[in-house]
Design goal:
The complex is a heterodimer of chains A (111) and B (114).
Chain A lengths: L4 E3 L2 E5 L4 E6 L4 E9 L5 E8 L4 E4 L2 E6 L4 E6 L8 E9 L5 E3 L3 E6 L1
Parallel strand pairs in A: 2-11
Antiparallel strand pairs in A: 1-3, 3-8, 4-5, 4-9, 6-7, 7-8, 9-10, 9-11
Chain B lengths: L4 E3 L2 E4 L5 E6 L6 E8 L3 E9 L2 E4 L8 E7 L2 E6 L8 E8 L8 E2 L3 E5 L1
Parallel strand pairs in B: 2-11
Antiparallel strand pairs in B: 1-3, 3-8, 4-5, 4-9, 5-6, 7-8, 9-10, 9-11
The chains are: A mainly beta (111), B mainly beta (114).
């Protein structure tokens, strides 16, 4: 099974609401990254959190990391229709520089 | 900065034909990754290079797949012979090892094998 597993698989909310996506992983990591993918496009890096960090902010994004539970969450505040996309977590394991991606959460923000 | 460039963007071919996908990484990046994305299997790492040397090709499905990186600015992924189950979107990504290891993805090549 994949290193990163997102939850939920799909999320539908109204514009202005907050969206929270979760990611769990299995092994020791150097960092965890979140990416966004719009339909038909490549993935775009959003934010990176290192294993010694617990929380990080970037604009309307807030990421938390709990290494004891091997889990992370991505919070998008005040969502917009343009936030509609798939969101993936990716982990860089301590054993190397490759990233392992989860299966993604499909977020739909309704106007 | 043009970002990661992939060609072609779309490829439709018949089973048994050879397919070559191309990638130009971001200048200065020393790691290059090939991924395949399908609805059934999600995003899979096929192979990655560091300083033009293949480091991990454990994700390459079978001998029909091969990848090369003859220099720092060009890589190819070849499928010969192609099969319908190879239909997918193939992404190339590059990064600077030693930095944040953020990967920059190209727009992908949508491959359809009939």
């Amino acid at each position: 099974s994949q290193q990163g597993e997102e939850d939920p698989q799909a999320l539908s909310i109204q514009e202005g609401e907050n969206a929270t996506m979760n990611c769990s992983y299995k092994t020791s990591i150097n960092n965890l990254q979140w990416y966004r993918q719009n339909s038909g496009r490549g993935l775009v890096h959003l934010i990176l959190i290192r294993s010694n960090e617990r929380e990080k902010h970037s604009g309307r994004l807030r990421v938390t990391l709990d290494t004891s539970k091997k889990s992370s969450s991505l919070l998008i505040t005040a969502s917009r229709a343009a936030d509609t996309a798939s969101y993936f977590c990716a982990t860089e394991e301590t054993s190397g520089s490759r990233l392992t991606f989860g299966e993604g959460t499909q977020l739909t923000v309704n106007p | 900065d043009a970002g990661v460039i992939q060609s072609p963007r779309h490829e439709v071919t018949e089973m048994g034909q050879e397919v070559t996908l191309r990638c130009k990484p971001i200048s200065g990046h020393n790691s290059l990754f090939w991924y395949r994305q399908t609805m059934m299997r999600g995003l899979e790492l096929l192979i990655y290079f560091n300083n033009n040397v293949p480091i991990d090709d454990s994700g390459m499905p079978e001998d029909r797949f091969s990848a090369k990186m003859p220099n720092a600015s060009f890589s190819t992924l070849k499928i010969q012979p192609s099969e319908p189950r190879d239909s997918a979107v193939y992404f190339c990504a590059s990064s600077m090892e030693g930095g944040n290891n953020e990967q920059f993805f190209g727009p992908g090549t949508r491959l359809t094998v009939l």
